[in-house]
Amino acid sequence: MALGTEIGDILRQYASGQPGADVESDFDQVARNADGEQLQHGVTETFRSSETPPFGDMVGQLFGHADAQQRAGIMGHLLNGAGPGLISSLLGAGGGRGLGGFLGDGAGMGAMGALLGKLAGGQAAQASQIDPADIDNLSPEQVQELATHAERENPGVMEHVSRYVAQHPEMLKALGGATLAFMLGKLAQRRE
């Protein structure tokens, strides 16, 4: 990562385990100057770590703080990254594989079930083309549950979501200072 002296100084702080006083500002500076691949690596390592909240929790939190386009992007990358069997398994399980009321109440399929049904029925060419209107009624908790299930089915989903989120680093602030500090530490390690 070819970054200036000031950015190098910031990263050295985090590499030594001594975060700066304003983690968000430090993160902004580093994110503006880091290349996308390096930032994606930091996000992926943060998602994978046992020292940060679980992947599903972080994705739900990001979804809850994102705008409509970003929520659609998160869902598209989450569903594409989970693999083709996820939609079928969720629809076929009817929520019975530990997903409780995930697809909605018994009478209707709810917002998540409707979205998955639309994707399975070929009404959308692929999950990356999700219309923000299709996910208006999804809650962060539903997305958290989906992300948790997707990670169990295919741990590689973290890289797909990381790829998207790294393109929108401002979203990562929703994860809080401790998680950003951890991510900056991972970026610093990668730099060395």
Please provide a written account of the structure.
The chain has 192 residues and is mainly α. The chain has one domain (55-191). It contains 10 helices and no strands. α3 packs across α9. The chain starts with a helix and ends with a helix.
**Count of individual beta strands:** 0
- Written as H for each helix and E for each strand, in order along the chain, the element string is HHHHHHHHHH
Question: Structural class of the helix and strand makeup?
Answer: mainly alpha
General form: elongated
> How many separate domains make up the residues?
1
What is the count of helical runs?
A: 10
Helix content: 55-70%
Roughly how many Å apart are the termini? 9 Å
Overall pLDDT, averaged? 82
Global Rg: 18 Å
Major beta-sheet overview: none
Low-confidence stretches: 94-101, 105-109
Beta-strand content:
under 5%
Question: What topology does this entry show?
Answer:
Blueprint: H1 5-15, H2 23-33, H3 36-48, H4 55-65, H5 68-82, H6 85-93, H7 110-120, H8 140-153, H9 157-166, H10 177-191
Spell out the key features of this protein.
192 residues, mainly alpha, 10 helices
Give the gist of this structure:
With 192 residues, the protein is mostly helical.
